[in-house]
Write a structure and sequence with these properties.
Length: 264
């Protein structure tokens, strides 16, 4: 589990609930099931109407995925450079066909396997760079759809909150003639839907959308780094040139050093 996400989520709701407890003794006035059903149900159903089922489900799963540890850390980028350099030495010693075994060992990483297959097939470095750039762009756009849906849900939730408030006000005004003393409490309940809509938008949907998109941006950067390495492999560039070219993408603190790291 991603500890920072979990702690941030708990802290946000703790501050929200804490402000309520410090402001009033009537906590239950903020609990209204019909309002919650109106906001959540309306937001989800409107989203299913607007987007294809598969992508909506991916967006909802994206909310839960923010609590999972993301393994694409800074150290991974250093390891990717090292792997490309190792393959550079392999190509230098045995030629491009020696990468065929590496292509089979790439396993569950379709991007690396696709890139290796192109290098082994004899594509030029420029062809590899162009094709992988297209792959990176289309993959990024496709994988960012859940983030866009979550942002749309963040815009929809407050709208349904306002709709629920209007419905509550209409019902309250209709009943006002029977008992005008209930006007204040009825208005408080009616405003709960607006509160729920804003809370869901700002504390659930938008943060989840931001994290999903950021993770895809990190993955895109990793793919761009690897694509450059494979283009250099296809051109049979020497390992030290590959190191310097790929290190130019990285923060100085995580750059690969052949002289130090290849000896481990």
């Amino acid at each position: 589990m991603s500890i920072n996400t979990f702690i941030g989520f708990l802290a946000a709701f703790a501050l929200f609930l804490g402000s309520i407890f410090l402001s009033t003794d009537n906590y239950l006035i903020f609990v209204d099931l019909p309002s919650l059903v109106m906001v959540i149900g309306g937001t989800v159903t409107a989203t299913f109407i607007s987007y294809e089922f598969r992508y909506v489900m991916l967006a909802l799963k994206g909310i839960l995925s923010t609590f999972k540890i993301y393994k694409m850390g800074r150290g991974i980028l250093n390891q990717e450079v090292g792997r490309i350099i190792r393959w550079g030495y392999l190509v230098q010693q045995k030629g491009l066909p020696a990468l065929e075994a590496e292509a089979k060992a790439a396993g569950s990483d379709p991007f690396v396997r696709f890139a290796l297959d192109m290098v082994v097939s004899g594509y030029s470095g420029e062809d590899v760079r162009t094709i992988l750039a297209n792959t990176i762009d289309t993959t990024f756009e496709r994988d960012c759809v859940p983030a866009k849906i979550l942002k749309a849900m963040a815009g929809t939730a407050p709208a349904f909150g306002m709709l629920g408030t209007l419905i509550g006000l209409i019902i309250m005004l209709d009943n006002m003639g029977a008992d005008p003393t209930q006007l204040g409490s009825g208005l408080a309940v009616a405003l709960n839907t607006t509160l729920y809509g804003i809370v869901l938008a700002r504390m659930v949907f938008l943060p989840a959308a931001s994290k999903v998109q950021q993770r895809q941006e990190i993955l895109r950067f990793r793919h761009e780094l690897i694509a450059e390495g494979f283009a250099l492999l296809a051109d049979r560039r020497p390992p030290r040139y590959i190191q310097d070219r790929m290190n130019s993408f990285l923060d100085p603190s995580i750059r690969f050093d052949i002289d130090k790291q290849m000896k481990r």
